[in-house]
Amino acid sequence: MSETTQVRKVGNSLGVILNKALLQELDIQEGDTLFVVKTSDGIRLTSYDPDFAEAMEAGRDYMKRHRDALRELAK
Fold first, then answer.
1. Phi, psi dihedrals of residue 7, rounded to the nearest 5°
2. Which of 11, 19, 59, 75 pairs with 3 at a CA distance of 20 to 30 A?
3. Mean pLDDT over residues 57-73, rounded?
4. Which residues of 57-67 are buried (b: 16+ CB within 10 A; e: fewer)?
5. What is the mean pLDDT of the chain?
6. What is the spatial distance between Cα 23 and Cα 29, in angstroms, rounded to a whole number?
């Protein structure tokens, strides 16, 4: 999928306008948070936060390794 859009002035900032068909296809609505990920080819706009996902995976790993201690602390 390849589309073009223009950067436009929005208040004191600049913004990119996504057309209605693309918003519906990607299930994006006003107020949703999107993340800009820099890649070697440019940028990727996504609703997925790779830093958050990495932190959650680290947390899950920690909880799995220390399951018994956490269970005792929960008592």
1. -85, 130
2. 11
3. 92
4. eeeeeeeeeee
5. 88
6. 7
Percentage of the chain exceeding pLDDT 90: 39
Between CA 50 and CA 60, with CA 56 as vertex, the angle to 5 degrees is 145
- Fill in the amino acid letter for 75: K
Instruction: Match 């070697």 to its residue by tokens.
Output: 40
Q: With the C-alpha atoms ordered 20, 6, 13, 51, is the resulting torsion angle positive or negative? A: positive
The amino acid at residue 11 is: G
Does the pTM surpass 0.70? The reply is no
- 52, 41, 40, 1: which is closest to 22 by C-alpha? 1
Where do the domains of the chain lie?
7-73
